[in-house]
Amino acid sequence: MQDESTCIKVPKTQGEKTIALASKLRLINKNLEIQSDEESVYLPIANRPSEDLLETLENQISDLEITTRVFPERNKPKPSLIELLKDKLPPHLLASLPRAIDFVGDIAIIEVPPELEAHKDVIGEAILTMNQNVQTVLAKAGTVTGTYRLREFKVIAGKPKTETVHNEYGCKYYVDLAKAYFSPRLAHEHNRVASLVKEGETVIDLFAGIGPFAIPIAKKHQDVKVYAIDVNPHAIEYLKENARLNRVFGRVHFILGDAEQVVNSKLAGIADRVIMNLPEKAIEFVDAACKALKPVGGIIHFYSFTNASDSLEKVKRNFATTVENTGRQTVEILYARTVRETAPHEFQVVLDVKIQQHGTQRRIFRQSRPETKTLSVRSGKT
Fold first, then answer.
1. What superfamily in CATH does domain 184-356 come from?
2. Alpha helices, DSSP H, located in the chain
3. Closest Cα to residue 293, out of 350, 250, 331, 255?
4. Buried-exposed string 30-40: b where 16+ CB fall within 10 A, e elsewhere
């Protein structure tokens, strides 16, 4: 819809200055879109300015003209979940509505608190209304459990499916959330680690899943070799499809099996870099990670959980002690930070650690960057 409105017309060279001044004077009609052409900028205003305001404008803006023009309406912000449901739920339940929504492809995932269980279908339909690109809304029906790190879901709105195609930093991933673990909240980490890899490296991803670390590494670097290990056969099948989809099939090597057994039998002493994204159990595989590194050493990206009483410093010390028990040593902690909050007072953390061969240097705890804390990129708590 378009409306004719009084407007301020100025040369493009004066546009930025005029917008700032008109905003300060509260003249701009915020319901309409600012327009421009090759020569001029047009600012819709609610009413013709008074003589005093006009004099103020003309004193600061040259070649200013008051005219009329047809303007399109500004896109209104999407209503919030509370706004959509305020007439459909009892008022006392509105405060319990989920604040966090995870998006994996065209699937939205929420956690429905017990007090809203009877209203989950209404909530799901509201989420579909809010997000035109979403086809399915899933509610978490349990925690991440088991060797394959899977979670149960209930479809509460839209198409009855758990499979989708997810886009992340230029990579595409087939994933079935009921068959293979995947978290969109680690998007920054996937891209960050891939950006650190250097040409010519051999990388071992001990718990590769559907490939969110392995695929971008191979896509960003032509001269790399990535060994992607996972114990879940469904994850490996999706990983293979994702390698084809992203045209990195020859640079990613898929291995189904237990990470420790695979390293001991096939991959000992070949890696420049090892990725350990199994935060609940990664500490149990430090020996395998150290065995996978070349004799001269390399980099380990170690993920773990911590809480308010179990600090990042404690994670560092525990990791270093575990490395020493393998006969290796921690030379330098290159990077350490909180990645995301996973539950109240529980966080996932990452350490980038330089590991050296036996007895070459004294272990030090030096970080190249200050510790920072970041939570979810696109959504809130798990």
1. Vaccinia Virus protein VP39 (3.40.50.150)
2. 15-24, 51-60, 81-85, 120-130, 187-196, 214-220, 233-245, 259-262, 286-292, 312-325
3. 331
4. eebebbeeeeb
Interval 162-219: pLDDT, tens: 999 999 999 999 999 999 999 999 999 999 999 999 999 999 999 999 999 999 999 9
CA pair distance 137, 134, nearest whole angstrom: 8
Domain formed by 81-161, architecture: 2-Layer Sandwich (3.30)
The rounded distance, in Å, linking the Cα atoms of 228 and 210 is 9
pLDDT in tens, 44-99: 998 888 888 888 888 888 788 999 999 988 877 778 899 999 989 999 999 999 98
Amino acid found at 224: V
2-72 placed in CATH 3.30.460.80: no
Q: Of 185, 176, 333, 351, give the one whose Cα is nearest residue 276.
A: 351
Q: Note the pTM of the prediction, 2 decimals.
A: 0.74
Q: Which two tokens stand for residue 190?
A: 């996937």
Place of tokens 């303007």: 71
